[in-house]
UniProtKB/TrEMBL annotation:
<dbReference type="InterPro" id="IPR000524">
    <property type="entry name" value="Tscrpt_reg_HTH_GntR"/>
</dbReference>
<dbReference type="InterPro" id="IPR036390">
    <property type="entry name" value="WH_DNA-bd_sf"/>
</dbReference>
<keyword id="KW-0805">Transcription regulation</keyword>
<protein>
    <submittedName>
        <fullName>GntR family transcriptional regulator</fullName>
    </submittedName>
</protein>
<dbReference type="Pfam" id="PF00392">
    <property type="entry name" value="GntR"/>
</dbReference>
<keyword id="KW-0238">DNA-binding</keyword>
<feature type="domain" description="HTH gntR-type">
    <location>
        <begin position="6"/>
        <end position="74"/>
    </location>
</feature>
<dbReference type="InterPro" id="IPR036388">
    <property type="entry name" value="WH-like_DNA-bd_sf"/>
</dbReference>
<dbReference type="GO" id="GO:0003677">
    <property type="term" value="F:DNA binding"/>
</dbReference>
<dbReference type="GO" id="GO:0003700">
    <property type="term" value="F:DNA-binding transcription factor activity"/>
</dbReference>
<keyword id="KW-0804">Transcription</keyword>
Length: 114
């Protein structure tokens, strides 16, 4: 979910993370260049560089000088673990509380898939 109150580089980071988790990029795959991703997202290249740097700081991407940035080995698994933890600790509790308040049943939620 997009959160306009978040800094742009964090929103870009979420887009990249979702792409990795969705399988658009696998471990070892090259990420788009800073300029290409900036153009695609309509963002400032410096802001994209900051988002990429945050992944590099977390060890989720590696830089091959003169070649580009690549998804690090094991990054998909580590990212999935971190995202699950964030979801269960931060996102799910208010959602679960709202489900209880509204008296919704799992069957009703499943019916919404169609």
């Amino acid at each position: 979910m997009a959160d306009d109150s978040k800094p742009v580089y964090l929103r870009l980071r979420e887009i990249i993370a979702a792409s990795i988790l969705d399988g658009a990029f696998s471990d070892g795959d090259m990420l788009p260049s800073v300029r290409a991703f900036a153009a695609q997202q309509g963002a400032n290249p410096l802001t994209v560089a900051k988002a990429y740097q945050s992944f590099q700081d977390d060890g989720l991407v590696v830089v091959k000088r003169g070649v580009g940035m690549f998804v690090a080995d094991g990054a998909t698994r580590r990212l999935r673990v971190a995202e699950r933890e964030h979801f269960l600790e931060t996102v799910w509790p208010p959602v679960a509380a709202q489900i209880r308040r509204l008296g919704l049943r799992v069957e009703e939620l499943d019916a919404q898939k169609a």
